């Protein structure tokens, strides 16, 4: 996916009501972030990044304070980058060697059954 899918205003409002205007981020020790978010000081973030197939739905949304969003964003970007590299690797064809193998099909020489090396014709 190349186009960013943002959450609708109604989804953001429902998510804010659901979480009670509290950050839904996780601290390193596994506890929930205690920050109470205020208007304009939060992000509605994708649990599964939209570039990895996450949809802009209530279930895939989470309200994060700016600090938790700052921690999560680099992790998301790393996952997205890895997915792109894997996708490119899946479709990449190994380029031809610039140096043909001796007596190989692209070589100007060929080896006869009796061991002689002769020039290829045509």
TrEMBL record:
InterPro entries: HNH. GO terms for molecular function: endonuclease activity; nucleic acid binding; zinc ion binding. Residues 17-72 form the HNH domain. The keyword Disulfide bond does not apply. Residues 89-109 are annotated as: Disordered. Keywords: Endonuclease, Hydrolase, Nuclease. This is HNH endonuclease.
